Amino acid sequence: MLPNVEYVICALIALLVAGAVFVVWLGTRKKIAADTIGRAEAEAARLLKDAERDVERLHKEIVLSAKEKAHEILSDAERQSRTERQQAQSLEQTLMHREAELLERHRATERSAQEILQREKALVTREQQIDAATVKYQQLVAHQQHELERVSGLTTDEAKDLLLKQIEHDARHDAANLLKRLDAEAREIASDRAKQYITEAIQRSAAEHTMETTVSVVDLPSDDLKGRIIGREGRNIRALELATGVDLIIDDTPGAIILSAFDPYRREIAKKAIEKLIADGRIHPARIEEIVQRVKDETDEEVRKEGAAVAFELGLHDLHPEILRLMGRLKYRTSYGQNVLSHSAEVARLAGIMAKEVGLDAHVAVRAAFVHDIGKAIDREMQGTHLELGIEFLRKHGESEPVVMAMAAHHMDIDWPSLEAMIVQAADAISASRPGARRDILESYVKRLEKLEGIADSFNGVSKSFALQAGREIRIMVESEKISDEEAVWLSKDIARRIENELEYPGQIKVTVIRETRAVDYAK
Question: Does the model's pTM come out above 0.90?
Answer without folding.
Answer: no
